Amino acid sequence: MALTVLMLLGLAVVAFLVGQPLWRSHRRWRLRQQPFPLAWRRILRRRVPQVARLPADLQLRLKGLMQVFLAEKAFIGCGGLVVTDEMRVTVAAQACLPLLGHTRGYYPKLTQVLLYPGAFVVNRPFNAPGGVVQDQRRALLGESWGEGQVILSWADVVHGAAVPDDGRNVVVHEFAHQLDQVKGVANGAPWMPVRRDREHWAAVMGQAYAELRQTLARGEVPALLDPYGATDPAEFFAVASEVFFEQGAALQAQHPPLYRALATYYGCDSAAWL
């Protein structure tokens, strides 16, 4: 009798583990099929002009991605900010741009998006002279945590969306970090299942990163990539992702190997978007 009960419990656990992904996939499919709310369309027209630059099929796909994202991710206001649908939709539209080619599980580690009214202050340890570790207060526009949170400044979310072709977008930046953090610590090398792809990525990104650092070392101002990308490989990937989604044609012209690597990873041709 006890053995039978254990077998039944085991079968139930197996059925749950097998059925959960199928149930989640079906639920997401149903969310994508729902009509996109008219109020959300108006928000996109007012707040996220980049959506109108996308081909019609990608606009439709983006809206479906947003419906899943908004159903699954919690938004929390911080610093006295009261989160509205306008905020949620504006963030979601930009956060889903990196998913247009490959959904990659809709940021599987992410559970919450925290919004501050503006730049927020954090304490970060740094190595002071003499080997002493001290806390340093820094004002940030955004931050991505591998534990399941993205933190954003609403004022900078608005600015990033309003100017869709300046290569600066805090939402894309932080959600690129989320993709990088799926495998663990962000290091500028998001997970790729094929070894040859990982090796090619490392070669291309390493070369582009080195070139940016060399440009800055000569005292020159980079023509396209933000100098912040020279901080480390993780920041370089996030900065390059901003440029890829906002200035694809310029990136393709000035850094062809870098553009091709990002286009392959993201599964879309942003240089063709007008």
UniProtKB/TrEMBL annotation:
<dbReference type="Pfam" id="PF06167">
    <property type="entry name" value="Peptidase_M90"/>
</dbReference>
<dbReference type="GO" id="GO:0008237">
    <property type="term" value="F:metallopeptidase activity"/>
</dbReference>
<protein>
    <submittedName>
        <fullName>Zinc-dependent peptidase</fullName>
    </submittedName>
</protein>
<dbReference type="InterPro" id="IPR010384">
    <property type="entry name" value="MtfA_fam"/>
</dbReference>
<dbReference type="GO" id="GO:0005829">
    <property type="term" value="C:cytosol"/>
</dbReference>
<dbReference type="InterPro" id="IPR024079">
    <property type="entry name" value="MetalloPept_cat_dom_sf"/>
</dbReference>
<dbReference type="InterPro" id="IPR042252">
    <property type="entry name" value="MtfA_N"/>
</dbReference>
<dbReference type="GO" id="GO:0004177">
    <property type="term" value="F:aminopeptidase activity"/>
</dbReference>
